[in-house]
Amino acid sequence: MENTERSGATPALSSQLPEDMTSLDGAPAADPTISVVIPLLNEEESLRELASRLEATLEPMAGGAYEVFFVDDGSTDRSFEVIKEIHRNNPRFKAIRFRTNYGKSAALAVGFERTRGRYVFTMDADLQDDPNELPAMLELLKGEYDLVSGWKKRRHDPWHKTAPSKLFNKVVQMVTGLDIHDFNCGLKGYRREVLPFLYVYGEMHRYLPAQAHWQGFHVTEIAVQHHARKYGHSKFGMSRFVKGFLDLLTLVLTTKYARRPLHVFGTVGVVVAAVGFVIDLWLSVEWFLGLTSLTNRPLALLGVLMIIVGVQLISIGLIGEMIAKNFLSNRDYSIREHIE
Length: 340
Fold this sequence. Notes:
Layout: E1 5-6, E2 34-40, H1 44-62, E3 66-72, H2 79-89, E4 93-97, H3 104-114, E5 119-122, H4 134-142, E6 147-151, H5 159-176, E7 188-191, H6 208-214, E8 219-223, H7 239-256, H8 261-288, H9 298-327, E9 334-335
Parallel strand pairs: 2-3, 2-5, 3-4, 6-8
Antiparallel strand pairs: 1-9, 5-7, 6-7
Helix pairs in contact: 1-2, 5-7, 8-9
């Protein structure tokens, strides 16, 4: 396994949630080999069956050296009471309970902080993700890959969820340059050394493979079985796609162009200003030849406006470059290995 470090970097998984959220298991134990993080919201019907399936899968995988963290994201049903019951039967099942609903990204961030396993898996609590997929994902993680993302190749969801999801994944694939089919699958596996490089907030849980890819980690996907929802209903509406696209823009600007903001703002600014300049130059030539009057040509005002906007965008990029120069350093780079 490759040695990886992040020199001087502050782990981005810390959250500003209440500090009194504690695990149900207070006894110290040796570090497990496998950790599983499961965010949930009002899933009391599915938890017992999910825990039973996980036990059957994880016992032979890790020989008892595993832990499962349920992260209750402000459930209003009896989900946490069921988790307490599961914990009494098997102390390897632990829990974190939020006072209110913070969202899936917050649940994953706090879960990542609490895990101790060499390999960390995430999955949803609604029984649509199959624990039997974990051994195949573990084999890939033990090989050359640092992150393995599930691909729900055959989905058991209504068309109004699958159609927008396909469009969303295509756009994200083009923007990030990472050739995987399903960014939003909750079933993923990570080597521990990947986690400090992941920024998990807002709706960023969809883009964890892209973040790892941009940091130079090896990312792949594996087709996984997807089950129809057995209990309850989906907690996500169409608004998640709007939020997802906004967070994609944030991710690109703050990650891919964080060290070179002029490249994105300056490029757009130069194009806009150039188009405005060409428009005004063309109209000026026509006016000089007596072919038109500039007083009744709104196109002339459009050209001036585009030049002004272009210059402003270039200026924003230059300001961003100055900020980046003052606050960023080479300590934030991902170092694969070193010899001293």
